[in-house]
Amino acid sequence: MELKVYKDYNEQSAAVAAMIIDCVKSKPEALLCFATGDSPKLAYEIVADRAVKEKVDFGQCFIIGLDEWMGIPPENTGSCHWYLHEYLFKPIGIDETQVHLFNAFGDEKEECRKMNKLIAANGIDLMVVGVGMNGHIGFNEPGTDINSLAHAATLDETTKTVGQKYFQDKVEIGKGITVGLKQVMEADTLIMVANGSKKAPVIKRAVEDNVSVVFPATLIRQHKNSFLVIDNEAASELK
User: Fold this and answer.
1) For residues 132 and 140, what is the distance between their CA atoms, to the nearest angstrom?
2) Domain 2-180+194-205+218-226 adopts which CATH fold?
3) What is the DSSP letter of 50?
4) Catalytically annotated residues
5) Can you give the pLDDT of all 239 residues of the chain as single tens digits?
6) Pairing relation of β-strands 175-178 and 67-69?
């Protein structure tokens, strides 16, 4: 794992955006896997802005979503579906044929089968993930099997509590569907992003705890080509 610490969220986000754009430039047909949430939002906005201004061709790439809240409609502004369309797909002009997202109302086993088949056939060239307050990656909650593929997960109480911030009105979120830890670890390039002082204790554990699914974020240290990209505030508790 390579640790990259930047002065602030703006510089951190610009660095992540550059890594995404460099990947697409070097491999136009790349398969990209993107998380949603507060941490990568500005990076995606910068990607969209640069793609338009610099005429970066995203026309051959394919994008999958890391996860989704089960039972949340795609038009809900808290859904991963809405987020990716709003901040990436629409601004860049990515066609629906280039995208595969989990269907929050689909048959769980079938949704997982389709995602697993797609990943197995193509491989993930670059994956961007955040990190939850409990160390989760996607909805791979603490204790998830390291060999897990795409699966539906019962959400941890921490995830359910923190997750409410994404919704305008209170919603019932009990399950999520996610790409599995085995697929995360097999991505050619893995970028984990975190920012702000609230994530400082999380990053401290990710970097300094024993590597274990007890705190999934620690697994990034065993990935063959991974980058932990954070700002000074998120790095503030590191030794």
Assistant:
1) 10
2) Rossmann fold (3.40.50)
3) H
4) 67, 134, 136, 141
5) 999 999 999 999 999 999 999 999 999 999 999 999 999 999 999 999 999 999 999 999 999 999 999 999 999 999 999 999 999 999 999 999 999 999 999 999 999 999 999 999 999 999 999 999 999 999 999 999 999 999 999 999 999 999 999 998 888 899 999 999 999 999 999 999 999 999 999 999 999 999 999 999 999 999 999 999 999 999 999 98
6) antiparallel
